[in-house]
């Protein structure tokens, strides 16, 4: 090797999928699809022209099955099969590599990443620097001395610093972090509840995964500790899955990778065979001359041009200074297009054609194009990521794949006055403090946009469009109608098998690395707000978001029909978007003085407990200090059962330890637990809720997410209003602080025992069905059936035991769990469960059938058809498999309840408006809905709400006969506690 030698390893598989999804379908003259081949070849020519390495190899995956599937059968099980028209292109892509004289490597049983790892190790042993051409996070474990990565989309170099910024640890610790965090895309299990950030903190603290798992019992956080102990084997398996093999048997020498100019005749033959002759001009610069038949010079015979190809550029509305075409390809380049829509034909020559719109005429032109297209990608840019604070900075529209524009409303220079240009009478136009040029006559532009957003002939597609709805409302614009959301669409299709951010979906489905938000919102001068981003950068970033959204919609929408999920998306999740947006805008009234009183009460209770704790300890100390508490309990009081941290030597005083000591009759740890309880109520609720009051509305506004939970349930954040305590007296006091506005009442409508009703329905439990139909006390009936005691005069203890089993069965409760809950022995709990299942054999049959369905399909379904993935159902690890089986049993029930209440939520606002009632839906807490209703309308509102909630979904058998009625309990009060 010479001193200047340099090896570049190209991740060819990543190139293929990006090429396939970046261009519309294409075919050569014999009908063979070649769109991905054309895109790949184009990218390869560009790469070779821009990079002058001495040694290059292109590496591919040889197939889906690898040694990792032997370790963990579910590895990558949820990844969809390649599209049918892509499969015949795989060998053609390899032909392209060989035509350019490059080594084309693959090895059955291994992934491309393993070959890259092996070649990297061998190169470093020969002191040969290596650049890995990929942005794949799994390859970042290889970065280090003499090894870096090159993101082929952004030309950004990735070294140890960039890896540490992404994972929080150096490259040599990346495998341990990935093993803990798992990977939903590749179905790497990891440890539940641990993400990349937490994993990095743990690895930094303990050094490596093996040490962490060895010392897991020292972890203070109870749930984290329990998960690390229970899922230790899953973490070890995950480490084996993510760790790249660097010992793949490859019979090659690096001399085979030396770059030599390809023969032009070979390149030309490949291009002509695939109708790519128009690429010959750029390719020829890489080649050595060879015998070239007359007329076969570069570009001499371009492939036939599609009808309308290149028209995208002729319709450009921006001037030379106000438009940009990002990496266009000539309209004459490319193969004969296959069966494509007119819109796709129009943009075939300019896949990334992004424009800046600064005049009303330009805006009108783009809106006309959008109306002609009928479907448009839309996105807003704002000056904050906080939904309640974000103000409109600009709007982007995509009218076809690759063709998009950005309309700036409120950009400013770093030296301009603070404030949003839409706030004052001089909105729009050039910022007097800079050369920033926003759209002229912003008020008129907003009117045009408002008309467009309400145009029902145009479908508006956003990604997380609920956020955009809030932004548009505060800018004086209406809700777009009709609308679609690619984030929700992706969630309905794939559940929680992966996350649903735009960047992640672009990588997953389009093979495209999008520009990250941080890349445009950080830079010289510490720019952090989008309204300070230069317009050329803002245009490309914003237009790309709308463009990618539209591409994803076109890709994903067809899957709804194939996967039979149209009903779930169209009747449940999509219509929930405007419903939730309106609820979030409404917010809920809270009594701030009452919350402050409760904070003071909790502070006094904590002070009283602290005094009692000090008296028991016979000295004062900081009750909130785990170290000082440990010294009191175990050094001074000499209590047994203490555990020291091997790292710090301090005593552990987590909740589990304190509960154990309290259960043994020790008073001090019990009082510390009570003290911690008050501390949590104060910090998490009473203090925090006062801070969360929006000064503009005087109300608290939560944010609901449709795409987070595995079962389809909604989740509430910032603040979380679904976890307000209710079972304790102090918790109920907090709910008392949620109040109705003047002249209004709060109305709570709660499905009664909906999950038990669903069990009776889906499992076909005749005894429970009949009891529900009669309106009996289901827990008393269960106790009577299982324990053989009469309902009349039943001991409340027996009813409580039956209730615990009823609800526990839904969650796959074990004898150990039931024993802890009821305070009985494990053997007695096991007898209770056995007696229950013997009396209701239909439930056992349902459980076994559901587990078998999950094992066969990888998912279960709710009664309304939602698919819920069950990762790990076929895992070889018994703990992981048992956990997955419990999920499989519970998911159709919990998910079914979530589907039913969402269907009701979609119908309720319209049903109330239909009869001129003005009550507003404010909150959803799993099976409960909370409304704010004018006091004079309460008696009229209750029957409407009850009718919709009870009749929106009927639980019927195959004959259409209702098996179990849905029942809704309704309460009314001046505050939430009194209404529930």
From TrEMBL:
Reactions listed under catalytic activity: DNA(n) + a 2'-deoxyribonucleoside 5'-triphosphate = DNA(n+1) + diphosphate
InterPro entries: 3'-5'_exonuclease_dom, 5-3_exonucl_a-hlix_arch_N, 5-3_exonuclease, 5-3_exonuclease_C_sf, DNA-dir_DNA_pol_A_CS, DNA-dir_DNA_pol_A_palm_dom, DNA/RNA_pol_sf, DNA_polI_H3TH
Region (Disordered): 297-339
DNA-directed DNA polymerase family A palm domain residues: 731-937
One Pfam family recorded for the sequence: 5_3_exonuc
Keywords: DNA damage, DNA repair, DNA replication, DNA-binding, DNA-directed DNA polymerase, Exonuclease, Hydrolase, Nuclease, Nucleotidyltransferase, Transferase
Residue runs in coiled coils: none
Gene Ontology molecular functions: 3'-5' exonuclease activity; 5'-3' exonuclease activity; DNA binding; DNA-directed DNA polymerase activity
Entry EC no(s): 2.7.7.7
SMART domains per UniProt: 35EXOc (SM00474), 53EXOc (SM00475), HhH2 (SM00279), POLAc (SM00482)
PROSITE patterns (alphabetical): DNA_POLYMERASE_A
Compositionally biased residues, Low complexity: 297-332
Domain 3'-5' exonuclease: 354-561
Biological process annotations from GO: DNA-templated DNA replication; double-strand break repair
Domain 5'-3' exonuclease span(s) in chain numbering: 5-260
Family: Belongs to the DNA polymerase type-A family.
Role of this protein: In addition to polymerase activity, this DNA polymerase exhibits 3'-5' and 5'-3' exonuclease activity.
Subunit structure: Single-chain monomer with multiple functions.
Stated name of the protein: DNA polymerase I
Lineage of producing organism: Bacteria, Pseudomonadati, Pseudomonadota, Alphaproteobacteria, Rhodospirillales
Gene label: polA
């Amino acid at each position: 090797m010479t001193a200047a030698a340099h090896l570049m390893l190209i991740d060819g598989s990543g190139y293929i999928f990006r090429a396939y999804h970046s261009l519309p379908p294409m075919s050569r003259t014999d009908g063979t699809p070649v769109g991905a081949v054309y895109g790949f070849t184009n990218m390869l020519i560009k790469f070779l022209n821009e990079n002058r390495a001495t040694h290059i190899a292109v590496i591919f995956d040889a197939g889906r099955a690898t040694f990792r599937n032997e370790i963990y059968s579910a590895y990558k099980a949820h990844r969809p099969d390649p599209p049918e028209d892509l499969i015949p292109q795989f060998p053609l892509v390899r032909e392209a590599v060989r035509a350019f004289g490059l080594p084309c490597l693959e090895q059955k049983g291994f992934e491309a990443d393993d070959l890259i790892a092996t070649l990297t190790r061998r190169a470093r042993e020969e002191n040969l620097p290596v650049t890995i051409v990929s942005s794949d996070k799994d390859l970042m474990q290889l970065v280090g001395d003499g090894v870096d990565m090159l993101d082929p989309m952004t030309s950004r170099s990735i070294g140890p610093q960039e890896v540490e910024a992404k994972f929080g640890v150096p490259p040599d610790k990346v495998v341990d972090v990935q093993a803990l965090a798992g990977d939903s895309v590749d179905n790497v299990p990891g440890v539940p509840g641990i993400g990349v950030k937490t994993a990095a903190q743990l690895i930094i603290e303990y050094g490596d995964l093996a040490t962490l798992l060895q010392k897991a019992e020292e972890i203070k956080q109870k749930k984290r500790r329990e998960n690390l102990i229970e899922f230790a084997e899953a973490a070890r398996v995950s480490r084996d899955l993510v760790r790249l093999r660097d010992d793949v048997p490859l019979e090659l020498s690096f001399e085979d990778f030396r770059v030599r100019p390809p023969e032009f005749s070979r390149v030309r033959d490949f291009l002509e065979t695939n109708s790519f002759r128009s690429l010959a001009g750029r390719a020829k610069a890489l080649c050595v001359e060879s015998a070239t038949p007359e007329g076969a010079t570069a570009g001499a015979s371009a492939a036939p041009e599609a009808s309308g190809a290149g028209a995208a550029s002729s319709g450009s509305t921006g001037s030379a200074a106000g438009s940009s075409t990002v990496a266009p390809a000539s309209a004459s380049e490319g193969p004969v297009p296959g069966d494509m829509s007119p819109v796709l034909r129009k943009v075939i020559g300019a896949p990334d054609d992004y424009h800046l719109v600064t005049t009303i005429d330009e805006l009108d032109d783009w809106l006309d194009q959008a109306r002609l297209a009928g479907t448009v990608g839309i996105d807003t840019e704002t000056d904050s990521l906080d939904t309640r604070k974000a103000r409109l900075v600009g709007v982007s529209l995509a009218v076809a794949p690759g063709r998009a524009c950005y309309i700036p409303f409120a950009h400013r220079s770093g030296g301009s006055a603070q404030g949003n240009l839409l706030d004052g009478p001089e909105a729009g136009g050039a910022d007097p403090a800079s050369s920033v040029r926003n759209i002229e006559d912003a008020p008129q532009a907003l009117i045009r946009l408002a008309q467009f957003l309400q145009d029902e002939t145009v479908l508006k597609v956003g990604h997380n469009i609920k956020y955009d709805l809030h932004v548009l409302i505060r800018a004086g614009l209406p809700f777009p109608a009709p609308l679609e959301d690619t984030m929700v669409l992706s969630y309905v299709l794939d559940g929680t098998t992966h996350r649903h951010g735009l960047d992640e979906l672009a990588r997953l489905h389009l093979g495209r690395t999008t520009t990250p938000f941080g890349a445009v919102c950080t830079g010289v001068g510490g720019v952090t707000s989008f309204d300070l981003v230069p317009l050329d950068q803002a245009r490309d970033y914003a237009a790309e978001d709308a463009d990618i959204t539209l591409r994803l919609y076109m890709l994903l929408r067809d899957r709804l029909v194939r996967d039979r999920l149209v009903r779930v998306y169209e009747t449940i999740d999509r219509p929930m978007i405007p419903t939730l947006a309106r609820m979030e805008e409404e917010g809920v009234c809270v009594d701030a003085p009452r919350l402050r009183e409760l904070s003071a009460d909790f502070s006094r209770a904590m002070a009283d407990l602290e005094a009692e704790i000090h008296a028991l300890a016979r000295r004062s100390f900081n009750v909130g200090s785990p170290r000082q508490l440990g010294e009191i309990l175990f050094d001074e009081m000499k209590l047994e059962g203490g555990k020291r941290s091997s790292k710090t030597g301090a005593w552990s005083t987590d909740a589990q330890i304190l509960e154990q000591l309290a259960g043994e009759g020790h008073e001090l740890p019990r009082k510390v637990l009570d003290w911690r309880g008050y501390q949590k109520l104060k910090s998490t609720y009473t203090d925090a809720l006062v801070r969360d009051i929006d000064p503009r509305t005087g109300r608290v506004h939560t944010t609901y997410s449709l795409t987070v939970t595995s079962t389809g349930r909604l989740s509430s954040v910032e603040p979380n209003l679904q976890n307000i305590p209710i079972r304790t007296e102090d918790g109920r006091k907090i709910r008392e602080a949620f109040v109705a506005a003047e002249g209004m009442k709060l109305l709570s409508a709660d499905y009664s025992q909906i999950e038990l009703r669903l069990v009776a329905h889906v499992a076909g439990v005749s005894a429970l069905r009949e009891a529900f139909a009669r309106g009996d006390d289901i827990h008393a009936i269960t106790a009577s059936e299982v324990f053989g005691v009469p309902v009349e005069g039943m001991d409340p203890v027996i009813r409580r035991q039956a209730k615990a089993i009823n609800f526990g069965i839904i969650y796959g409760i074990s004898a150990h769990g039931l024993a802890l809950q009821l305070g009985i022995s494990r053997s007695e709990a096991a007898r209770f469960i056995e007696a229950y299942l013997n009396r209701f054999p239909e439930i056992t049959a349902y459980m076994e059938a559901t587990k078998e369905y999950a094992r066969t399909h990888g998912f279960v379904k709710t009664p309304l058809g939602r698919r819920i993935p069950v990762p790990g159902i076929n895992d070889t690890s018994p703990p992981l498999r048992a956990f997955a089986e419990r999920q499989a049993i519970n998911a159709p029930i919990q998910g079914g309840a979530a589907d039913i209440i969402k269907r009701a939520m979609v119908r309720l606002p319209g049903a109330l408006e239909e009869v001129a009632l003005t009550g507003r839906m404010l909150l959803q807490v799993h099976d409960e809905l909370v409304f704010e209703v004018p006091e004079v309308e309460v008696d009229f509102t209750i029957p409407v709400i009850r009718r919709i909630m009870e009749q929106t979904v009927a639980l019927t058998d195959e004959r259409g006969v209702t098996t179990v009625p849905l029942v809704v309990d309704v309460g009314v009060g001046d505050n939430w506690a009194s209404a529930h």
